Prior knowledge:
The chain is an all-alpha fold. It has seven helices and no strands. It has two domains: 3-92, Uncharacterised protein YqeY/AIM41, N-terminal domain (Hypothetical Protein Yqey, Chain: A, domain1), CATH 1.10.1510.10; 101-151, Arc Repressor Mutant, subunit A (Orthogonal Bundle), CATH 1.10.10.410.
Amino acid sequence: MNMRERVNVALKQAMKDKAADRLSTLRLINAAIKDRDIAARVDADSEGVGDSEVLAILGKMSKQRMESVRAYEEGGRVDLAERERAEIAVIEEFLPRQLTQAEIDTAVSDAIAATGATSIRDMGKVMGELKTKYLGQMDFGAVGPMIKARLS
């Protein structure tokens, strides 16, 4: 079952369970996927974006909500922060398991070795290698400085 089908099945189940908060988050996910479909539509026969693109959408949605949680907590709005955390929990159900720090270190080392990277100029190759293998499993914003430190 692909990502799109998993979201739709969860959406239908949330409707049956009358879980309003979960349902609204799943509808947001579905809307984001459909928006990307429309933006990427080249021909009428296109089935839309693939699983890797859906994973990227979900990762972005999760990251946006994390930033909102920080902002709400700084502003003293704990109630809104909790609502965002609940949305994060629903979104993360569809994301693959996040790698541990040790697994990330190993993945970065393997990617550097696989690409033959020797300098900071090769950072793009390493990031490309990691994104093809570990999309949705690590925060590439945090991995970037790690790669940079190893290549300098």
